[in-house]
Specification:
About 5% of the residues lie in helices and about 45% in strands. It is mainly β. The chain folds into four domains: about 80 residues, Immunoglobulin-like (Sandwich), CATH 2.60.40; about 130 residues, Jelly Rolls; about 100 residues, Jelly Rolls; about 120 residues, Immunoglobulins (Immunoglobulin-like). The strands form ten sheets. Strands 2, 4, 7, 8 and 9 form a five-stranded mixed sheet that branches. Helix 2 links the parallel strand 10 and strand 11. The chain is flat. About 35% of the residues are buried.
């Protein structure tokens, strides 16, 4: 007797146990160009899995930025309303299966151009029209790629060149150099407050100079050769400087608590000193913020003895923030400096002194969630407390669609976790939207945020966190 009947029977049995795989939400790896001008429109192309099927829809964190699908897959026209403020915004693509991770789209006030190939070599750029007060959009498409852009400058008129590549979430460590009309390097730039470069230069003559953009690997690799891919997208902003700041910080200005002041480290190696008063045991937060240089701060007593210092903050943030307790009654000094000992008329910063109060940092465990009608999904929020609260943390969920409810329990106000269960009624309709969670404790309210997904942060992205995670409600499966 043959045993051949057993094979098809086994296949039928296994097939009956295998459930159909749920389709994945769309992927979203890059967007080019990654920005546009206020009041204009730009033709963009996106890269990522699933963006060429199932008609993914774009969501943008500002309603005045609208993505309209083009005639071809992954092609979009982006319209930017005249009332959209300059700055970065988040973009997602979503389908019935869920949402992609968010990416950054930057809106600016200057005219924008898209690179024209070939522009790899200095000779390729010689025929370009020199531009100023312009944003150049480019992509380093392959290993060894170097993009060259012509800029027109005026004698004595300062120029700032700033690349946003890493800050957009591109997987690259970009660098920048400035060449004269002969192709000789004048100056260069690499890391600033993150991995993106900036150059500030005052031309000695009228004419055309050339900016070159290239990149190394990020995350770092042992191979230090130049890298490139379709996701190595960048924006190079080239602008003439406004008149240099002339209102410098007076000697030993007095700061109240709370209080803040702005200043400029006008000379190389300069340190600005602010004085403030504090009582013994008083807890203060001392801060210095600048996107022009790598700021650091120091606290001294009235005699100039160093009591505490702060450099980089937490989570890759380079601005210093120091929680400090006064050792005695008296006058103290807040000293602001450039960690790299630089200086110049553009080295502006803001200094702040505030009294501490308990703070709560709350972080979602994901940027997006999915729930099927008739089922539930758990949202975990990690809590980190600085200081001491006396009450419990209560949570409320805002912006849920019809048919959704939230179940949450109070949590102790200490480092730990709070869980929110989102329940979808059996009749809940399919939907896609953002939602928020609000935490309340001791009369203060806090909005948890998720971290914009990125590998190995080395400083700030243009948007590092957001308080609006995504929620996909899927229709119940037919029985």
């Amino acid at each position: 007797m043959t045993n051949d009947w057993r094979l098809p029977a086994f296949v039928i049995l296994i097939s009956s146990l295998v459930l159909p795989a749920r389709a994945a939400p769309p992927g979203f790896e890059s967007l080019f160009p990654a920005g546009g001008q206020i009041g204009g429109s730009v033709a963009c192309e996106v890269a990522g899995k699933g963006l060429d099927k199932d008609s993914p829809v774009a969501w943008v964190s500002h309603p005045g930025i609208v993505f309209k699908a083009g005639d071809k897959a992954k092609k979009f026209t982006v319209a930017i309303a005249p009332d959209v403020p300059a700055g970065p915004y988040l973009v997602r693509f979503h389908s019935a299966e869920g949402s992609s991770p968010p990416r950054i789209f930057e809106v600016g006030s200057e005219p924008e151009v898209v690179e024209k190939e070939p522009n790899d070599a200095f000779a390729d750029a010689k025929g370009q029209e020199g531009r100023i007060n312009t944003v150049f959009n480019g992509v380093l498409e392959k290993a060894g790629d170097v993009d060259t852009h012509a800029i027109r400058v005026k004698k004595g008129r300062g120029v700032t060149l700033e690349v946003h590549g890493y800050a957009l979430g591109s997987p690259m460590d970009p660098a920048l150099r400035l060449l004269d009309a002969r192709g000789v390097e004048i100056t260069g730039g690499h890391d600033t407050h993150n991995l993106d470069p900036r150059i500030e230069y005052t031309p000695k003559t009228d004419g055309v100079l050339y900016a070159q953009v290239f990149a190394f690997a990020h995350p770092p690799a042992a191979d230090v050769s130049l890298k490139g891919s379709s996701t190595h997208v960048y924006r190079l902003r080239v602008v003439e400087d406004a008149e240099p700041a002339t209102a410098l910080v007076p000697e030993n200005p007095k700061l109240s608590v709370p209080g803040e002041s702005v200043g400029v480290l006008a000379k190389r190696g300069e340190e600005d000193v602010f004085t403030f008063s504090a009582k013994k045991g008083e807890e203060l937060v001392l801060e210095a913020h600048s996107r022009r240089f790598d700021a650091a701060l120091r606290v001294e007593d009235a005699e100039g003895k160093s009591l505490a210092t702060a450099d980089d903050g937490e989570g890759g943030v380079t601005d210093p923030v120091l929680r400090w307790k006064a050792p005695k009654d008296g006058e103290f000094k807040l000293v602001v400096l450039d960690r790299d000992r630089g200086g110049g008329p553009r080295q502006a910063y803001q200094a702040k002194v505030t009294a501490t109060k308990p703070t709560l940092t709350a972080v979602f465990d994901n940027h997006a969630y999915r729930v099927e009608a008739g089922k539930s999904v758990e949202v975990k929020i990690t809590l980190k407390v600085t200081g001491k609260f006396t009450g419990k943390v209560a949570a409320s969920v805002l912006g849920l669609p019809a048919g959704l409810s939230a179940e949450v329990k109070e949590a102790d106000a200490k480092s730990g976790e709070i869980k929110v269960t989102l329940k979808a009624a059996p009749e809940a309709a399919a939907s896609q939207a953002t939602f928020r969670v609000e935490l309340a404790v001791d009369g203060q309210t806090f909005l948890p945020s998720y971290v914009v997904p990125f590998t190995e942060p080395r400083g700030d992205l243009l948007i590092t966190t957001d308080t609006r995670p995504w929620l996909t409600v899927a229709a119940a499966k037919a029985k």
